[in-house]
């Protein structure tokens, strides 16, 4: 009786890298929001939503990564599916910061493009892992 390991090493590595990259993304984006609020005439009523979206993303990232790690390592589709759902939320918030925050600098575009591409790759790997666990 041979047992097979179904968890995905590429997914595990990408989740780890995403965790580190997200810390960088969060701090860089926060620093840019502070910079923009000092250099540009940032309307007070628009500063709060931009900061709120960034912090919401940060709060969402913790369970997103935790469930991704847990679901992959325990070969359980439910936590991985929840992580995939939270990734959709993170993508929406990231697109907000890419397109609709008050001031978008080229650095915002670059940071968000990298983040969105890792989310896309990670989502594909999650779907493949879930398919392997279910079959």
Automatic annotation (TrEMBL):
Q: Which residues cross the membrane?
A: 12-35, 47-67, 79-97
Keywords tagged on the record = Cell projection, Membrane, Transmembrane, Transmembrane helix
Name the domain of life this protein comes from.
Eukaryota
GO CC annotations, alphabetized: ciliary transition zone; membrane
Location within or outside the cell? Cell projection, Cilium; Membrane
Q: Does the keyword rRNA processing apply?
A: no
Q: Does the keyword Membrane apply?
A: yes
**Predominant location category:** other
Any one Pfam family here would be: Transmemb_17
Q: How does it sit in the membrane?
A: Multi-pass membrane protein
Give the record's GO biological process terms: non-motile cilium assembly
Question: PANTHER family attached here?
Answer: GEO07735P1-RELATED-RELATED, TRANSMEMBRANE PROTEIN 80
Q: What name goes with this protein? A: TMM80 protein
